Amino acid sequence: MPDSGFREIRGLDLFAQMTDQNFAALVRGAYVQTFPAQIDLVAEGDPSDFLHVVLSGSVDLYSCWNGRDTSLATVRPISTFILAATIRDAPYLMSARTLEKSRIALIPSQDVRAIFDIDGGFARAIVAELAQGYRAAIKSQKDLKLRTSLERLANFLLRQQKRAGGDASFELEFEKRRLASVLGMTPENLSRAFKGLQPYGITVEGNRILIGDQEDLERFAKPNPLIDDPTS
Amino acid sequence: MPDSGFREIRGLDLFAQMTDQNFAALVRGAYVQTFPAQIDLVAEGDPSDFLHVVLSGSVDLYSCWNGRDTSLATVRPISTFILAATIRDAPYLMSARTLEKSRIALIPSQDVRAIFDIDGGFARAIVAELAQGYRAAIKSQKDLKLRTSLERLANFLLRQQKRAGGDASFELEFEKRRLASVLGMTPENLSRAFKGLQPYGITVEGNRILIGDQEDLERFAKPNPLIDDPTS
DNA sequence: TGGTTGACTTGACAGTTATCAATCGAGGCT
DNA sequence: AGCCTCGATTGATAACTGTCAAGTCAACCA
Predict the structure, then answer these.
(1) pLDDT, tens digit, 9 for 90 and up, residues A23-61
(2) What confidence score (pLDDT) does residue A90 get?
(3) Torsion over CA of B63, B5, B7 and B119, rounded to 10 degrees?
(4) Torsion from C-alpha of A20, A21, A25, A26, nearest 10 degrees
(5) A-contacting residues of B 125-154, CB under 8 Å?
(6) Which of A123, A144, A165 is the last residue of a domain?
(7) What average pLDDT does chain B have?
(8) What's the CATH number where B155 sits?
(9) pLDDT given for residue A1 in this prediction
(10) Which domain holds residue A24?
């Protein structure tokens, strides 16, 4: 058990409340590996052998059907992904690939399930994480079904602005083609959507966004904590 | 504590593994109530005071934003809804209303959280249920983002057929306007989508559907267990 | 430096979906 | 029967979104 990496994991909400002994047992069979960019980590339909923890870099969760594909989420450090599949011992519903060079910890799913059964603190943390993920998925569904693509983009920009610190100018941390996929549109339409937000004060220069009139954009976007607040 | 109703609840996966003592404590503050049709049970944004269990009838989970609204799910006996909000002590993300006369059990959320902390069997069941709900939400997102409305309808019909027993002819258990909302389209387009499936052997007569050529429909719908199988 | 690559953008067009208005038809009521 | 209501359907039209093709631009590299 190489220690590197596991100290960072220990600090995660998911692992913070468990006993030292159980944590040691959990990481005994685990390992940390560094992957280059654009590497497929898991494919949808695979059995969920490992719980993955992103320590650095970033991971794209996506899915394919009938020749089409769509990005569903981005995982950034430090957090886990595909916990639900691990818990249910069910196949992954999404594929995962690195977006950039990334350090990933892999914890055998059977160990997660075994420790879950004997460590109440761990079980409680898993419940909290699952409930949060569940709610995030519902919010995403509401975003998709209740908003037009222009509204989704406007609200995404407001969320991203907040994540980036709140300044009027900030960086998109997304390749635009992937942002388009996450927002449920084509890259061409994302381009047009950015232009469609110009009347509300949005300026785009490469990956840098400038919100010229915060109030004007918010009046159009109508952000709602029950859709856009990632913490609730 | 009126006993009526609680015996049915006890048989649910969610409550089956907990101790008698804890179950008694859980239902001590709970009550069962019968509601007429079209009654709002909870509104999105409300604090999650109760975990709801549908004993009979059916409940529509929906959400509104900026003058639009959409149905997200239907809850049928016997199952719970809005467990994630209860667990996280967070506001409801969806509103709920009865579709027909329904018996609902209401269990105070704080009791759920308290028993969850002391009963391992209950905690495990909650985790299983949350993970399942989480995965269902992901599947729904994939359905929305990867399929056209015609494909969503075709796959819905195949799922409903299976739920109804597998016969070529079966009942829609949905008002069509609500089905349209669930599938993310307007009632007008649902009408047209049904006609669009006629070439694949679909006949509609009121609420009764006939699948004339199973293979033809499946060839078009391309059902996928990672989207359409509710059990995985 | 010139060429190549790949992401992004733009325009033209086609396909899909929403909207609005009108009509149909079943069920309930007087 | 006649009337009313409400959901479902249909047609016409507008809005939106996807597709295809072409062009721009910056980064990279020999």
Answers:
(1) 999 999 999 999 999 999 999 999 999 999 999 999 999
(2) 97
(3) 50
(4) -30
(5) 126-128, 130-135, 137-142, 144-147, 151
(6) A144
(7) 94
(8) 1.10.10.10
(9) 46
(10) 6-144
DSSP 3-state assignment of A232? coil
CATH number at residue A112: 2.60.120.10
Continuous segment of H or E residues that includes residue B149: helix B149-163
Residue A65 falls within a domain, yes or no? yes
Number of cross-chain residue pairs from A and B with Cβ atoms under 8 Å apart:
146
pLDDT for B4 equals: 65
Query: A26 and A107, same structural domain?
Result: yes
Q: Which of B144, B163, B194 is the last residue of a domain?
A: B144
Nearest to B141 among A124, A132, A141 (CB): A141
Residue B212 has pLDDT above 70, yes or no: yes
Question: Does B1 reside within a domain?
Answer: no
B205 CA: nearest nucleotide by C1': D8
Residues A188 and A84 in one domain: no
Pick the closest to residue A209 from A181, A174, A180 (CA basis): A174
The stretch A81-104 carries a mean pLDDT of: 96
